[in-house]
Design goal:
Elements: E1 2-8, H1 14-35, H2 44-57, H3 62-81, E2 92-96, E3 101-104, E4 109-113, E5 119-125, E6 139-148, E7 151-159, E8 169-175, E9 179-186, E10 191-198, H4 201-218, H5 227-262, E11 264-269, H6 281-287, H7 293-306, E12 311-314, E13 329-331, E14 336-339, E15 342-345, H8 346-363, H9 388-392, H10 394-401
Length: 402
């Protein structure tokens, strides 16, 4: 994981740090400028022979030089893969090797080696939520120094050895615009539990995006030149982004809590190019750009990894159309289905089928539902984690059963 903390220089060495970051950025740009015109990106050995003496002469340490090679090579290769023009670096950032800094977590201080073997001490503005990483199991890796708008930021990478858990159940997770539906099966394909995690983050973010678009529509020609319009638009869009990030963190945390409770392996749908897919009409096409399904998956994956919980991805094809328990499935509308003699949502069917595919991935063979299972009632509402649609639409469920 990576922790971002703000830092200050109590001894007034900010000038030395800014000079180091500026020379560091210019050195990466120097390497990029000289290798950009080459047909192939040089190897690390070739870069070492080309630039080592020159960079050492600028006052860098040996590990500074190796990080400069690495960064320049990454930038050139990624830009060429995207068919971009020659990159021009502007941000003052630097990667610092573990041997070029001294981190004291007790005193919350950081000493960093800069040019000509000088050291700069930084006082970290620590956050209480980071105290859980001070139990000794986490070890710091390389750090990233950044200077923006007169502020110093330190990004500290922390890592620890993970012991994978042996899963007892499989949890299929279906991501939607306003909720996450999950179904938990044991290793014998029998239903254990199901539930829904609702959220309103996307709805709130879409409202803010609509406000920004309405502002541009009212001033189509000159909104870019109106300072107040740019400021308001930026505030709305930044708030929308923060809402989506907070929602992804909250939802992923709850998913991992459920997986930890049942000691489950998490099964996600492998969504490919869904934002380019035109299915769903104009309304869904407007919502898709802000749908943070990939961010939720990534946050859940690394949070689960910390607890030793595995995460797998399966093909979601036909998961919301196929019966998961060999009972007859009848579609009522775009949202509800009749599964046997029970009415439920297509989200439940999708998460159930995802869990079955996860079992198939684990076993490497075909997974069949056992019709003699004592839990064949499947989507019956439960007291704690039940079928929310049954409580939300009681009249519909009663009518269908009659």
């Amino acid at each position: 994981m990576t922790a971002r903390v703000e830092a200050v220089t109590p001894k007034g060495d900010e000038g030395l740090l800014v000079e180091f970051l500026r020379v560091y950025r210019d050195s990466i740009q120097l390497v990029i400028d000289e290798i950009w015109g080459l047909d192939e990106t040089p190897s690390w050995t070739e870069l070492h022979n080309m630039f080592y003496s020159r960079l050492i002469g600028m006052g860098f340490r040996a590990h500074h030089v190796s990080e400069i090679y690495k960064r320049a090579k990454e930038v050139v290769e990624s830009t060429r893969e995207n068919n971009g023009s020659k990159p021009i670096l502007k941000k003052l950032t630097a990667r610092i090797h573990t041997l070029d800094y001294r981190l004291d977590l007790d005193k919350k201080t950081l000493r960093v080696a800069v040019l000509r073997d000088k050291w700069v001490e930084l006082k970290l503005e620590w956050y209480s939520y980071l105290d859980k990483y001070l139990d000794g199991s986490w070890k710091p890796g390389e750090i990233l120094l950044s200077y923006r708008y007169g502020r110093i930021y330190v990004y500290i990478t922390l890592h620890k050895d993970i012991v994978p858990r042996e899963p007892r159940v499989v949890m299929g997770v279906d991501l939607n615009f306003n909720n996450i539906t999950y179904t938990i099966l044991d290793l014998n394909s029998e239903l254990v539990s199901m539930g829904v995690i609702p959220f309103k983050g996307l709805k709130r973010a879409l409202h803010l995006r609509k406000l920004a678009e309405d502002l541009q529509r009212r001033h189509p020609r000159n909104w870019r030149f109106l300072k107040w319009a740019r400021r308001i638009r930026a505030r709305w869009l930044n708030k929308a982004r923060n809402i989506l990030v907070d929602t992804a963190h909250r939802v992923s945390k709850k998913l991992v809590e459920v997986a930890r409770e049942y000691n489950a392996i998490i099964v996600f749908e492998d969504l490919e190019e869904i934002k380019r897919n035109n299915n769903g009409g104009k309304r869904l096409s407007w919502m898709k750009p802000l749908w943070c399904y990939r961010r939720i998956q990534e946050y859940t994956e690394y949070k689960a990894l910390i607890d030793g919980i595995r995460t797998v991805y399966v093909n979601p094809a036909k998961t919301s159309k196929k019966s998961p328990n060999n009972r007859k499935i009848k579609f009522i509308n775009y949202r509800f289905v009749e599964l046997g003699d029970t009415v439920t949502s297509r989200d439940v069917v999708a998460s159930w089928n995802l869990a079955l595919k996860g079992l198939k991935r684990m076993r490497g063979s075909r997974v069949k539902w056992s019709p003699d299972s004592p839990r064949s009632e499947a989507v019956k509402p439960r007291a704690k984690r039940g079928n929310p649609e049954a409580e939300k639409y009681p009249k519909l469920f009663t009518a269908i059963h009659k």
